[in-house]
Specification:
About 45% of the residues lie in helices and about 15% in strands. It has about 240 residues and is an alpha/beta fold. Strand 7 and strand 8 form a beta hairpin. Helix 3 packs across helix 4 and helix 4 packs antiparallel against helix 6.
Length: about 240
């Protein structure tokens, strides 16, 4: 058994099998020959906006306006005039819609990551989440992650993206551990609204955890147990009843 301590995002107890969510695919080598790249980009923006509008409506019905406004902001981000102007310039320079939009989006993300305000730095992951949706749509790939597991999981994440945490619930995800993130990110607000326990541990992806390893997450204390003894599991579960 191994024990580690991290930063609490949302308190709670979770016990289940690890599921490691892989980093995003890179489609940059894929080209769509003989196609109008501006048309491809505009179609992807339209489809992404439609999906975000669905999330705005569903989150408004199920949760507070604080959640729906997150996706309202994402809908604005994907079509930000400065972002689109740069993407169009890159397309005119001979880039594919994917490469052009990705480069323009990354420039915006880098700017936000280096701002002095923590609040504004925390918005970088929102820009990444929103624009990644468009990049997946350009390549006709599904950005949403399925929640159809045989049993509930403890998610192991590289980044706390709002869309990822919004699409899961406590019936299929008992808790999560992220390599990066912040208590004040929008994704953390979603986790607290949905009451999903979570902890941030910067070395979580370096510990050799495999899919299916049993994880005990004591997010009241910020403690993470990898392959815990059943006696410890029962003890901690009993403490929190």
């Amino acid at each position: 058994m191994q024990k580690y301590s991290g930063l609490i995002v949302n308190p709670g107890i979770a016990y289940g099998k690890a599921l490691i969510l892989k980093s995003e695919q890179d489609f940059s080598s894929t080209e769509i020959n003989g196609s109008n790249q501006m048309e491809i980009l505009n179609n992807a923006l339209s489809k992404s906006a439609t999906r975000l509008e669905e999330q705005i409506q569903s989150s408004h019905m199920l949760y507070s306006d604080r959640i729906s406004t997150i996706f309202e902001a994402h809908k604005l981000m994907i079509s930000d005039p400065m972002l689109l102007d740069k993407a169009k310039q890159y397309i005119l320079s001979g880039n594919t819609a994917y490469d052009a939009y990705k480069q323009a989006a990354q420039e915006a993300i880098d700017i936000f990551k280096h701002l002095s305000s923590e609040y504004m730095r925390n918005r970088a992951i929102d820009i990444e989440d929103a624009t990644d949706r468009v990049l997946y749509t350009i390549q006709e790939e599904n950005y949403e992650i399925s929640c159809s597991f045989d049993d509930a999981k403890i998610l192991i994440l590289e980044k706390m993206k709002p869309s990822v945490l919004y699409n899961f619930n406590k019936e299929c995800v008992f808790g999560f551990i992220s390599k990066t993130g912040s208590y004040n990110q929008h994704s953390a607000l979603i986790a607290r609204t949905k009451n999903i326990p979570g902890v941030i541990l910067d070395k979580i992806l370096d510990l050799g955890i495999q899919d299916g390893d049993m994880i005990l997450l004591d997010a009241y204390r910020g403690d993470i147990y990898i392959k815990p003894d059943i006696e410890l599991v029962n003890k901690i579960l009993e403490e929190r009843r």
